[in-house]
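agent> fetching stored inputs for the adenosine-5'-[phenylalaninyl-phosphate] docking request
agent> found them:
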Amino acid sequence: MQALKEQFTADLAAAKTADAIEQVRIKYLGKKGSITNLAKNTDFHSLSIEEKKAFGSKLNELKNFAEQALAAAKEAAANAAPAKKTTGLDLTLPGTGRTLGSLHPITLIQMELESIFQGMGFTVVPSPECELEFYNFDAVNIPSDHPAREMQDTYWLKNQMLMRTHTSANQVRAMQKLGVPLRAIFPGRCFRNEAVDPSHENTFYQCEGLVVDKNISVANLIAVMKTLLSQIFHYEATVRLRQGFFPFVEPGFELDFQCQLCHGEGCSTCHGTGWLELIPCGLIHPRVLEHAGVDPNEYSGFAFGVGLTRLAMMKFGIPDIRLLNAGDVRFNTQFPTFV
Ligand code: FA5
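agent> prediction call returned; pasting C-alpha cells
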C-alpha cells in the first residue's frame, strides 16, 4: 500500500490538466484501478479478524488520501490561468521614428537658381547629357582643329556622340528650336575626363544661360550676374571681372568669386589664389548666331555658364568638391531644405 501510495502521488504530480488527472483517477480508483483491485485481490479467509480490521482501515485511509488528493488537483487545474494567446504584437514597444528625406546641396542650389532666373523672366529648359559632337563643339565655334577642344578632355561615345563637356552645347539647338528672342537657362551635368582635386570633378554641374534679343549689351549681362549673386548669397559678394577667352563669345569674361572658405587668403580649395572661377560669360559670337540661323546684324545676346557645383561649395562652405559625388548620407543630409 505504501508503494502504491508513492506511485499514485508521483503520477498525480505529473498530471497538469483535468484530463490527465482523470486518467490518474481511473488508473487507481476506477473499477479496475490499482487501489480498487487491492480489496478484490486479497484473500480475506487467510486473515485473522484483527488483520482484516487493520487491512480495511489502511485501505480506507489510502482511498481517502487518493480521493482528497485528486479533488485538490482538479480544483488547482481549474483555477490555473489559461495559457496566454499571443499575437506577436507588443503595443508597449516604442515606435520607429521616420526619417525625413533631404535634398542634395546641388539640387538645392539648382532649385534656387531656377527660381531666381524665373523671377527675371527666364525659361528653365531640360537638356540631354549625351550630345552630338556638332552641338558640343562645332556649333559653338570650336572646330576639330581648335586648341579649345583640348581644354575640355572629352568622354567619347559612338557615332560622333559624346558626354557633353559643357552646357554651352545647348546654345545653338535652343535658338533653332525655341527661336529668338530668347531668355532661357539650361542646368545640368557635364563630364570631363580630367584629374580630380578639391575643386575639379570629372562629373559636375553647370547652368548655361542664354539671352538673345535686339540691342543686348555687356551692361545687361552684368546686371543679370549682379542680381543672381546678390540673391544667392544675400550679401554683396566680392567678385572680379576679367577678360576670358571662349570661342563662342566676343568679348569674353571670367567672373571670379572670392573664395568663401578662406575669404581671399588662399587655401587648397582655391589653389592658394583666393579666387574661384565661377561664371565665365560674354556676348554671343556672331558665328554662333549664324549657326543657329539668327541674323547677327539684327540680334545680339549674351551667354554665361555658371559652375553650379562650385556655387554650392561657396554657398554651403564645402571645402572639397569630391564630397558632393561621394554619396555619403551623413554629408548629404546636412543641408537646410529651404535656403
Ligand atoms: C565653359 O564650360 C563654358 N562653356 C562656359 C561659358 C558659357 C563661357 C557661356 C562663356 C559663355 P569652363 O570650362 O571655364 O567654361 O567651365 C565653366 C565653369 O564650370 C567653371 O568656371 C567652373 O565653375 C565649372 N567647372 C569647369 N570644370 C569643372 C570641373 N572639372 N569641376 C567642377 N567645376 C568645373
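agent> quick read of the result: Residues 166, 168, 192, 194, 200-201, 204, 206, 208, 246, 249, 252, 277-278, 280-282, 303-305, 307, 309-310, 321 surround adenosine-5'-[phenylalaninyl-phosphate] (CB under 6 Å).
agent> awaiting further instructions
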